[in-house]
Amino acid sequence: xxxxxxxxxxxxxxxxxxxxxxxxxxxxxxxxxxxxxxxxxxxxxxxxxxxxxxxxxxxxxxxxxxxxxxxxxxxxxxxxxxxxxxxxxxxxxxxxxxxxxxxxxxxxxxxxxxxxxxxxxxxxxxxxxxxxxxxxxxxxxxxxxxxxxxxxxxxxxxxxxxxxxxxxxxxxxxxxxxxxxxxxxxxxxxxxxxxxxxxxxxxxxxxxxxxxxxxxxxxxxxxxxxxxxxxxxxxxxxxxxxxxxxxxxxxxxxxxxxxxxxxxxxxxxxxxxxxxxxxxxxxxxxxxxxxxxxxxxxxxxxxxxxxxxxxxxxxxxxxxxxxxxxxxxxxxxxxxxxxxxxxxxxxxxxxxxxxxxxxxxxxxxxxxxxxxxxxxxxxxxxxxxxxxxxxxxxxxxxxxxxxxxxxxxxxxxxxxxxxxxxxxxxxxxxxxxx
Length: 434
Hints:
By secondary structure, this protein is an all-alpha fold.
């Protein structure tokens, strides 16, 4: 029986049979590139300055991915792009496992991570497009929350489960062999996902390559939408908010894993790789998810304008936890978990305001294109501050660096004061009526 005939069976077309795995596959390479790479390099002795600088560059594909989205539309189906990119990511995981044993492992693995970032960003374009084509409008609304949850589960699996696996193997196999085995496991997992989606993704009738004329028109419309976005009267405030609201978090996120792993004599907490997998990769992510869910709920009740300032405060205030941790250097793992969870909850809660603001400024005729521009600027806002955060930490030490992070929240408060939000934007009844 042909694969296409098999997948015509309705049981394989049910959204629950492919949406969770699709968005798990979207989240795993992202967290491996953006977070797990930093933990890997720290365990292999790379300096904080180099970790922050070079891994921040890996944000670039997500920053500019709207620019090559027409290519995904013009050549092949979204379905084929999805499992092809997943196969490529699986192969790249295997390449990292091999490259870790080379003398110049840092350069080679960075190159592979860069390819993985581009493959993952391309997969995002195809997966999000396939989500729209594969579901009716009602199901698109129903499963939007499922998408987010499965993406976060992937973060726990990568930042928590796979890091925990590497940490469990380190005492027995050594650091390099342990992490190599972990990336082989990731390759097998992702290869299995690719095969699963090759077999069981549905075949939407509308999933066809765009005609060249349609693609040219799309590019013209995107350029027009891009120009209109930057001709807004309030573009200065919009850009300032998108770039600076997370200015402190962009620096903090790059140095949390090194701080947790560094020896106490160097100002760190001296946790093992396994402990970091639990503290930052599991407890922290669960708190992040909880913050996001609660943030979305409270905005739906009272609107973004009412919650904007509380969310900005709740997002930034827990950064003080790392000032305390760096001065006291506690050994109680439960207390460390609590501090990290508080910071991650605050970030998840406060980021909800950021996400809703992107939706607010994207409204109108070119909502999809404008939102894509916003996500690119969002990634740029994380990339640029993160690039230099490691050097700042090495110059100041952990204690003074976390003081600097607290000071870096000031631009976030300033841009929060500048934005103007309609009173009822974000309320449930408003969303339902638009």
